[in-house]
Every structure is written in C-alpha cells, then in structure tokens.
Fold this protein.
Amino acid sequence: MIKKRFILLFFVSSFLLSQDDDLLVIGKKVYTESCAVCHGLSGKGDGVVAGNLEVKPRNFTDGKFKVRSTRSGQVPLDEDLYRILSRGMGHDNAMPTWSHLPPNSKHAVIEYIKTFAPKKFSRQHRAKVVPMSPRKANTRESIAAGKQWYLDIECAKCHGMNGHADGPSTKTLKDSWGNKIVPPDLSKPWLFIGGSEAEDIYRTLSTGLTGSAMPALEGTLNEDQTWDLVNFLMHEFIDPGNYAPR
Ligand code: HEC
Ligand code: HEC
C-alpha cells in the first residue's frame, strides 16, 4: 500500500514538474520570437534595437518594474504583468500591446521573464497589494482638496502647474538606469504607461513607478486623500468632460 502511494506520488509530482517545464519551454519560445529584439536574449534590456529607442526596454534582471499593484520596491504580481501585456504601455514608448497573444502564451512568457530575477520573484508571494477604497465622489470639496495636495506635494515641480510637463525639474530627470526621462503631459492620458481610468491613476499614485522619478504616495496620503488627488487630476487634466464636479 505504502509503495503504491509512493509510486502514485512520484507520477503526480513528475507530471506537475513537466507541466512547469513545458510552460517555460513555451515561454522561452514566445520570448525569443517576440520580446528578445528589445529586451535582449538574457533579459538585460539590451536587444538589437534597444540602442535606437529613446525610452529603453526594461532590464528584467534587477526585478524593478514600474507598473504594479504592489508596494514600492516589490515585484509585480502575475496579474499586473498580464494586464501590461494585454494593454501595452501607452503610445510614448516602443512597448507593443500583446492583446493578440493567446492567454497561455502570455502566462508562459510571464513565467519565463520571472526567471531573469529569480531571487526577487521567489518573494513574489509575500508582495502586498496597496489598499484601494471604493472610488470617492468627485465633489467640489474633493477636487479642491486634491488641488491642494498637488501644490503641497510639489507635483508641479515636474508636471508644471498646468500639467504640461514644464516644471523646473523636468529637464534634468533621469531614471534609475541612468536614462533621461520625461513626464507625460497629464492632459494626454493615452501616453500613460499604467492606464488612465480613475482606478489606474489611484494605483499609479499610491505605488509610484519604481525606477522612474515618479514617487509613491502610500504612507504620505491616506486612501481618502489619494482619491481627492485622483479626482483633481481627472477633472483638471485627464478627463474634464466626464469629471465635472458634482
Ligand atoms: C519594440 C520593443 C519591445 C518589444 C518587442 C517588447 N517590449 Fe517590453 N518594453 C519595451 C520598452 C521600451 C519598455 C519600457 C517602457 C517604459 O518604461 O515606459 C518595455 C517594458 C516592458 C515591461 C515592464 C513593465 C514595467 O512595469 O516596468 C514588461 C513586463 C515587458 N516590457 C514585457 C515584454 C514582453 C513579455 C514582450 C514580448 C512578448 C515585450 N515586452 C516586447 C519595449 C519592447
Ligand atoms: C520628480 C519628478 C516628479 C514628481 C515630483 C511627480 N512626478 Fe509624476 N511623473 C514623473 C515622471 C518622470 C513620469 C513618467 C514616468 C515613466 O513613464 O516612466 C510621471 C508620470 C506621472 C503620471 C502618468 C502615469 C502613467 O501611467 O504614465 C501621472 C498621472 C503623474 N505622474 C502624476 C503625478 C502627481 C499627481 C504628482 C504629485 C503627487 C507627481 N506626478 C509627482 C515625474 C514626477
């Protein structure tokens, strides 16, 4: 009886192992065919066309990702990476949308890019999602409070008072890989890399965009105050037509 169980266990675990292996084989194939030209065969962001791109492809080997639902400094969840592949990262860089890839290929390539930073991703299960309360109504009071945060936290230093990315610090910004980086015009949400719905803006503000100059506000603003700032940005710059004060 014990022997039988042991044999069964052996078969089940080797089946699971080979499933994982298969996923990585598929992932490597997708990566080599579709991603390596920019991100490089070894994931260092040094693919053959990288030199010609103004916004450089991500180096996957240091485990730093800009667009996440997790706390500043933590790796993204698989769902975050899946969302990025499905949506792309705005119109201002070379990262294409991969919505046409079948779900299995997306899952496989995600598993594969995680192997470039194995130590960081071994802690992925401990990553904490930044809390988000339900959307707050965009009342006049909320928008006015958000405007005050925009002034107090000095968003205008980089984004300018009118959101046109003409603040005094804008010209000298570098990302943590040493590349020049320019904030997007806040009235052109199609340039945003993390999405432009109110919930996306909330997530971007609270988690920050690790590696860029864009700071994380979790710990500076509470959930209510973060919504005030989101309401101000939606009303003033991002989607004024749908965000008239109520
Ligand atoms: C034509 C070039 C190009 C190709 C091909 C490409 N990428 Fe990218 N990718 C980029 C650039 C550029 C960035 C950085 C964008 C930024 O920082 O604004 C990026 C960023 C990323 C990020 C980082 C997101 C973050 O939050 O920091 C992921 C994940 C990613 N790419 C996955 C992939 C995968 C998977 C493939 C293949 C299926 C792929 N990319 C193919 C150019 C490319
Ligand atoms: C030190 C400069 C700096 C400050 C201060 C700053 N930002 Fe940014 N912000 C950036 C840069 C750079 C980017 C573009 C990052 C990228 O694409 O990698 C950005 C991007 C953004 C985006 C677009 C996000 C996306 O998905 O592409 C929004 C919205 C934004 N910032 C709002 C704010 C608000 C609100 C504040 C104040 C709380 C603020 N920023 C403070 C530099 C800054």
Observations:
- The chain has a mean pLDDT of 92.
- The pocket of heme C (ligand 2) is lined by residues 66, 150, 153-155, 157-159, 169, 173, 181, 183-184, 186, 192-194, 201, 204-205, 209, 212-215, 217, 229, 233 (CB under 6 Å).
- The two ends are 71 Å apart (CA to CA).
- Residues 173 and 181 are 6 Å apart (CA to CA).
